[in-house]
Amino acid sequence: MTVAVIQFGGSNCDRDAVRALESLDIDAERVWHEDGLPADTTGVVVPGGFSYGDYLRAGAMAARSPIMDEVRDAAADGTPVLGVCNGAQIGCESGLTEGAFTTNKSARFQCEHVHLRVERADTPWTEHFEEGDVIEIPIAHGEGRFEITEERYDDLVDNDRVLFRYCDADGNVTDDANPNGSTHNVAGILGERESVAVLMPHPERATLPDVGGTDGENILTGFRA
Amino acid sequence: MTAYTATVTVRLKHGVLDPEAETTKQALERLGFELSELRSADRFEIDLEADDAAEAEERAESMAERLLANPTIHDYEVSAAPAAESA
To answer: Where along the chain is the active site annotated (chain A) (predicted)?
Structure first.
């Protein structure tokens, strides 16, 4: 019974993720990508960082490493998989989720607290929220602008795959509240199954009260389901 | 088998915002250059052995599909020519 937090060369949020999960009494361990998923894996975190130095495109290399085949199989079997930041980029690059995360509209690295509106409350990641709830979680990325073709975006909406959108403190989804130019303020999306989700903001950085804010806690508890 | 160089050019699809190109354009303008638009692209040159140019292109195309380009945001072009003789 353990959540595998996959460590690639250049991952840097792996320890934070383990610590945040353990603070919630969820057993977690770092797993070096070359070692494959442990047999007792009950969940997978693809953590933030700069895997392979963001060479080619953020997440492109890690998405094509052999462990991601195992992650795709696990995801298809219903194992919860959460991709955060670089893990979200890897999730899209590996086909776990639709779309792509690319260069921020500002062309700058942005590290700040943002508000997110919960678009679906019936997933393992959001079951402690109500639809429309506003939560505050930090972002830290240079390539977080969600891009997708209009046609695919319509499919995402029709299939109810949008999990979080950037919004203001009152829950209004506006251009001003969109930190990186993401298409329709999308901050996080679901994969084919509700148990697979990726998001650019960092729930593990909003879990331990000492570092400010605990809104991320209720996302990570998705691994208890 | 002949030595070929396949060239894969990967560029953002029309309409996809390119903040890096915009920043580069602004830097050129600060230097006093006049320009209307600037687009950037990635170009990969791949040396490989193939029976003919068509095979070299086909292999490079598959590299573009599998890794070099992201179909969500990119278009790509592939060409192949006999490799230049090394000195």
So the answer is: 85, 202, 204
CB A161 within 8 A of CB A126: no
* Interface mutation vs chain A, best among B25, B63, B66, B67, most A CBs within 10 Å: B67
Please list every residue in chain B whose beta carbon sits closer than 8 Å to the beta carbon of residue A106: 19
Q: Which residue ranges make up each domain of chain B? A: 2-82
For residue B14, the chain A residue with the least C-alpha distance is A149
Task: For residue A67, give Cα distances in angstroms to A5, A6, A13, A36.
Answer: 12, 9, 18, 5
* Residue in A closest to B64 by C-alpha: A56
What architecture (CATH level 2) is domain B2-82? 2-Layer Sandwich (3.30)
Rounded-to-integer distance, Cα A196 and Cα A215, Å:
19
Cα–Cα nearest to A103, from B8, B23, B69, B36: B23
**For residue A99, which residues of chain B lie inside 8 Å, CB to CB?**
72
What's the CATH class of domain A2-224?
alpha beta
Task: For chain A, give every domain's residue range.
Answer: 2-224
pLDDT tens digit string along A163-218?
A: 999 999 999 999 999 999 999 999 999 999 999 999 999 999 999 998 878 999 99
CB-closest option in B20, B67, B70 to A107: B20
